[in-house]
Amino acid sequence: MSVNATRGGPTARGEASGQTLPASHRLRHRSQFQKVQERGQRYAVGALVLLVLPNNLGHRRLGVTVSSKVGNSVVRSKIKRWFREIFRKRRALLPPSVDAVLIARSGAAASSLQGLGRDFEAAAEQAKRRAQGRSGPGPAVEKGVR
What is the structure's pLDDT at 20? Predict the structure, then answer.
């Protein structure tokens, strides 16, 4: 084990292997969160709510909100880590160039990482369908037939 790993350096946190979200891919200020919450599209699935708002940055950004209603600080920190991990691995499911805010619902504390991942995938699929101009799976239409 390297010295950095034992002291909480970049190797211990996964930074050396590129597994963290860079600061440029995070929402970090209250005004950024408020903008997404006021103007973004809302997708509530299972134990999470996904808010999505297009941006002009050319990449996706994430903000995470976990209120004290979800659990104590240990539980809230775990949920935030899980949300960042889910976003990092599955961000390609979202439309490109969006700001996303993940909000934990009260059931998040009882969920598993896999369960929250499935909830995120379902919410991201809804967001992608809407971004492509479809609100849901409608009837199939053959070409040339009306």
Answer: 80
Give the right CATH number for 22-131 from 3.40.50.880, 3.30.1490.20, 3.30.230.10, 1.10.3080.10. Answer: 3.30.230.10
Cross-strand pairs, 100: 52, 62
Looking only at the bridges linking them, the beta strands covering 61-65 and 98-104 are parallel
Distance from C-alpha of 114 to C-alpha of 80, rounded to nearest angstrom? 14
β-sheet with 61-65: strand ranges across? 41-45, 48-54, 98-104, 61-65
* Non-local CB neighbours of 6 within 8 Å, separated by 6+ positions: 12
Quick one: which of 43, 41, 48, 88 has its CA closest to 65? Answer: 48
* Global pTM value: 0.77
Contact of 104 with 67, CB cutoff 8 Å:
yes
pLDDT above 50 (res 126): yes
Q: Where are the domains of the chain?
A: 22-131
For the chain, the first-to-last Cα distance in angstroms comes to: 66
